[in-house]
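Why should sequence recovery work at all? Because a backbone constrains its sequence more than one might expect. Tight turns favour small or flexible residues, buried strands favour hydrophobic ones, and helices have their own preferences. The token representation captures these environments compactly. In the example below, the structure is given first.
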């Protein structure tokens, strides 16, 4: 399964369109690009493998693997990148401003179910991040 995240960068956050197998699935929010600095920057463009992850805080969510110089980059719900993210990616239903969106859980749940289903069927899931 191939996910494509096409980003637009702003000073206060990063917004994206997430495509699954070529179709728009949802939008995303992230921190601004600050040279991949830990906890304050979105991750670099590139292709990454997604795997399942569970924590008490986020329950079932996704782990973005292979990010150079970073660890524990996740895909989890959030509506405000500056307040709720530390380098992770949050799916949202609508974009309300740079790094901000609405109804993150409504976008997150079907994404996680779809990716978990693919992984349960021994399919690899790749996320490619590019600029619009």
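From this structural description, the recovered sequence reads:
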């Amino acid at each position: 399964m191939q996910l494509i995240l096409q980003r637009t960068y702003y000073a206060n956050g990063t917004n994206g369109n997430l495509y699954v197998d070529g179709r728009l699935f949802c939008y995303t929010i992230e921190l601004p690009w600050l040279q991949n600095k830990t906890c304050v920057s979105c991750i670099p463009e590139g292709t990454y493998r997604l795997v399942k992850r569970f924590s008490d805080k986020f329950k079932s969510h996704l782990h973005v693997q292979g990010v150079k110089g970073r660890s524990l980059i996740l895909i989890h719900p959030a509506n405000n990148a500056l307040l709720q993210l530390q380098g992770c990616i949050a799916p949202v239903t609508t974009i309300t401003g740079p790094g901000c969106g609405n109804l993150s859980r409504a976008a997150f749940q079907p994404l996680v179910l779809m990716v978990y289903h693919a992984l349960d069927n021994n399919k690899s899931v790749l996320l490619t991040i590019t600029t619009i």
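A few observations help interpret the result. The chain has one domain: 2-131.
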